[in-house]
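Continuing the batch. This is chain 6 of the set; chains 1 through 5 are on the previous pages. Same settings as before, nothing changed between runs. Recording input and output for traceability.
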Amino acid sequence: MKTALHDVLVQPLLTEKITSMRERENTVGFLVRRDANRIQIKRAVEALLKVKVERVNVLNVRGKTKRLGRFIGKRPDWKKAFVKLKQGEKLELYESA
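Output for chain 6:
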């Protein structure tokens, strides 16, 4: 199945760890579709955000098990991507805060 580029990136991740990675290593984080691969993520970031990508690291995150009394549920699994930008590239998405 072919996925459109704008469907690959779900939302940017704004955590304390990713903020420090952005400042130190010029790396940004995104929540991406579970069926997306590194090549699709790289193409989507370069096409939609107009920056050059050096490397993409991908992590599959398991959803946590949660309880409410005797009922047990599970949060959904998800995938996140750490995208390292090339030297001199900046992403305006994070600079507007």
